[in-house]
Design brief:
The complex is a heterodimer. By secondary structure, chain A is an all-beta fold. Chain A has no helices and eleven strands. The chains are: A mainly beta, B mainly beta.
């Protein structure tokens, strides 16, 4: 049972354009969502998070949008840079469970072309 | 500030052997979580420890165990290794149940 899904295995965009990465979830108990970036042979790097009480959070070039009714979140990267090329994972947790357990999607490989 | 550190970086074992992986959290973080990542998938939750007590356990067999020490570092132990245990093992630390920061991982290969 895949509770967090990233349906696009890969995405290719031109440098300077917007990258939009999508994530869907099924568990209504999830109330905290995160995006991580991962380069080969490294651990995931935290990018940005959002609580379920918000519908948008921005940090520099990165913006996360949360649509609770659709159980959907997206990460926007504007403008995209070649250094953004990596695998992006969305993750979700149920804060109230107090376990800190993160459920990850399968990842989306982003390629930003110069 | 030092990030999460893990040792060793790479490990090769044979089936049936035992392995111990180590993790040191970010200074000030009292929680450590362990994840397993196989190729092409996202990390899968194994354990979380907070203040030396197990707070959460994922869907892994009893061959997997962990503990947290008074200095908040942690060990993950896997007994009776199987070929399917070959994966990247990730440790993450957090202050409590908030944002988790990951280490570089330990690549385990079981032959």
């Amino acid at each position: 049972d895949q509770q967090v899904k990233q349906n696009s295995p890969s995405l290719s965009v031109q440098e300077g354009r917007i990258s939009i990465l999508n994530c869907d979830y099924t568990n209504s108990m999830f109330d905290y969502f995160l995006w991580y970036k991962k380069y080969p042979a490294e651990g995931p790097t935290f990018l940005i998070s959002i609580s379920s009480i918000k519908d948008k959070n921005e940090d520099g070039r990165f913006t996360v949008f949360l649509n609770k009714s659709a159980k959907h979140l997206s990460l926007h990267i504007v403008p995209s840079q070649p250094g953004d090329s990596a695998v992006y994972f969305c993750a979700a947790s149920a804060f109230s469970s107090n376990t800190g357990k993160l459920i990850f999607g399968q990842g989306t490989t982003l390629q930003v072309k110069p | 500030d030092a990030g999460v550190t893990q040792s060793p970086t790479h490990l090769i074992k044979t089936r049936g052997q035992h392995v111990t992986l180590r993790c040191s959290p970010i200074s000030g973080h009292k929680s450590v979580s362990w994840y397993q990542q196989v190729l092409g998938q996202g990390p899968q939750f194994i354990f979380q420890y907070y203040e030396k007590e197990e707070r959460g356990r994922g869907n892994f067999p009893d061959r997997f165990s962990a503990r947290q020490f008074p200095n908040y570092s942690s060990e993950l132990n896997v007994n009776a290794l199987l070929l399917g245990d070959s994966a990247l093992y990730l440790c993450a630390s957090s202050r409590a149940t908030d944002t988790q920061y990951f280490g570089p991982g330990t690549r385990l290969t079981v032959l």
